[in-house]
Amino acid sequence: ELQNTNLSSIPIPNSNKANEILIELLSSPNIASKKPVFIQYDHQVQTNTIASPEDADCAIIRIKDTNIGIGISIDGNGKTTYLNPLEGAKIAVAEACRNLICSGVEPLAITNCLNFGDPTTQLVSHQLNESVNGISESCNTFGIPVISGNVSLYNSTERGPIFPTPIIGAVGKINNVKSIITSEFKNYNDLVILLGSSALSNDHNDLAGSEYLEIIHKKIAGSPRIDLEFENRLQKCCLNLINNGLIISAHDCSEGGIAVTIAESCILSNIGFESEIEIDERWDVSLFGEKQSQIIVSINPNEVNLFSKICSDFHIPFTTLGITKPEIFKINSLILNTVSELKNAYSTNFVK
Hints:
By secondary structure, the chain is an alpha+beta fold. It has helices at 18-26, 35-38, 78-83, 85-102, 122-142, 211-217, 228-243, 257-269, 283-288, 304-313, 339-348; strands spanning 49-51, 59-62, 69-75, 106-115, 146-152, 156-157, 160-161, 165-174, 191-195, 249-252, 272-275, 295-299, 318-325, 328-331, 335-338.
């Protein structure tokens, strides 16, 4: 029933609410900075940590006395798997690997922890079976093995079983840790590009399972989806662009959509962003929808031709969203804010 929800019926908020919605999403528990958590432990132990928490889309440690790095990413989304167990599990594997790719790390293998309710019931048995199939399909597409895993079953509350939550841990290798790519913008006047789409989405189905839909409209509904073949080409294309020295920053689009992804890159760097890209009537989908297989990258404007050629070779579309600027965060007439205000929302609300 939830999968078949007509998301076109979700009302479009007044456009003057866009700024307020962005702030609310940035301060929500699933998106806000987790620094209050990770500062509780020594993430620099033995001084081999190359990418610290929040620096990049994955953590990277150096193999001591070499330039080789090991990247680690953990991902999972109970909402998407609840709405569509097969697609949700595919998405978990894809995003864990995409997080490695965005840092310049080639995925080598995954592990998993399958967190579900009572598998003797028809519902949970179906969820578990479909999730395993989704993980298998993703790994076959990406050409990586599942090297270990475990399960946690019979998890429930007085309201019923927990959301089916396959947690995916992905590991990969980078040959030179000096070549890692981080999430934050680096310079003023760099081009900010959406890799994976030729335009901002206007498809209401991309609201399925999104943070925006839950937080603003109080709904968990829709049927998330992913094209694994396209995702595989996107990841190979992004890694090729990185290995050719064309990518300055990379951050995958996930919870909160494109607006949140760009805002996070601004917050981490204290560098702003300005865009006048065309946005259709469903601006909420364009800014806060969670379409899969998209990455926000920044590049030097002088590298556009080579960037375009490599994308063409992999049949991956892209669109230029805007440029990096000092302090301001502006998207058309919809959002006008400062990086300082965004950082305040992102950094101070998780512990409340």
